[in-house]
Design goal:
Layout: E1 2-8, H1 12-24, E2 33-39, H2 43-55, E3 61-66, H3 69-73, H4 91-94, E4 99-103, E5 107-109, E6 126-128, E7 130-133, H5 140-146, E8 154-156, E9 160-164, H6 165-170, H7 173-183, H8 192-200, E10 205-206, E11 213-214, E12 229-231, H9 243-246, H10 250-254, H11 259-265, H12 270-278, H13 280-292
Parallel strand pairs: 1-2, 1-4, 2-3, 6-10, 11-12
Antiparallel strand pairs: 4-9, 5-12, 6-9, 7-8
């Protein structure tokens, strides 16, 4: 089974737990082929990933693919000056397989991803967990007002996506998605997630709800089923400064964190300081929500 990640240096700390939980909860991890789309990763970063895989006795395959997100998507709206997430749109060109499961690097995977082997797309090019109607999304004015889509159409979070790559290539979907970005570069409040929801307009296959359980810092642990993929959306993350106090998901994340990985990427750096400053409002909101219970 093919698994893909889009990762930059800032996302490395979260990636460690995502990988560890993915491998430990997979019934046959040797069946996994991991693809890392790397935005600015150093060789020592890639070596650390290989070290983690070796320590977890991973016997599957992995491949590193370097790409420049700013060169490809620099004209689009960024997320705090970062365009890495748009790399998802390049998967059909970079991975020449029929299917790939894309995973964000802020997940804890406590189910067996091999459950998706043999998944029936029923003609669709993408599968995702339904996240609610377009009317409830951050970009509802864009979808409904500018594009004229029905407010009742289903939306999805792009943190866990199953790509039908064969269908993407057949219908030139990547170029069509990029054209949406070119037409509305400043409307992309959620980066490629906005593009994907605009393009698919509710026309996607449904993954089981447990494959993308959104977990905000102040919320209680999701309880959809016994085995889920927990997605730490928003900020701060469990591994951010004061995350152990603010984020209710910290114990779940910590269960899979490795000391060697934390030592390699968990230090207080200039990059992390910049991130704290950029998400300072999220910190304030999270603390207020935590106090309110």
């Amino acid at each position: 089974m093919n698994i893909a990640f889009c990762i930059n240096r800032l996302g490395l700390l979260g990636l460690g737990t995502t990988l560890t939980s993915l491998i430990r909860n997979c019934s046959k991890p040797d069946c996994l082929i991991l693809y890392f789309l790397c935005a600015g990763l150093l060789q020592k970063d890639k070596n650390q990933i290989l070290k983690l895989l070796l320590s977890e006795q991973f016997e599957g395959k992995c491949q590193f693919i370097d790409f420049d997100p700013k060169a490809n998507f620099g004209k689009f709206k960024s997320l705090h000056g970062d365009w890495t997430a748009y790399g998802r749109l390049l998967l059909p060109d970079l991975i020449y397989e029929d299917q790939v499961l894309y995973l964000d690097s802020d997940l804890v995977v406590e189910l067996d991803v091999l459950e998706l082997i043999g998944f029936e797309f029923n003609g669709h090019a993408l599968a995702a967990v339904i996240g609610g109607p377009l009317s409830n999304t951050l970009e509802n004015n864009f979808y409904i007002g500018l594009l004229g889509l029905s407010p009742h159409l289903n939306s999805f979070n792009s943190g866990v996506l199953l790509f039908n790559l064969k269908e993407w290539r057949l219908n030139n979907i990547k170029d069509n998605c990029i054209q949406i970005g070119c037409n509305y570069p400043m409307e992309l409040l959620s980066c490629d997630q906005t593009i994907l929801n605009a393009y698919f307009a509710g026309n996607f296959s449904k993954l089981p709800d447990g494959f993308n359980c959104v977990w905000y810092a102040h919320k209680a642990k999701p309880s959809l089923s016994d085995k889920m993929i927990y997605h730490f959306v928003g900020s701060p993350k469990p591994w951010d400064l004061m995350g152990s106090i603010i984020h209710n998901g910290y114990p779940t994340w910590k269960k899979y964190s490795r000391k060697d990985w934390d030592s390699a990427f968990g230090s207080f750096t200039l990059t992390s300081i910049r991130r704290m400053w950029k998400i300072r409002r999220s910190y304030t909101k999270a603390v207020i929500n935590k106090i309110r219970g």
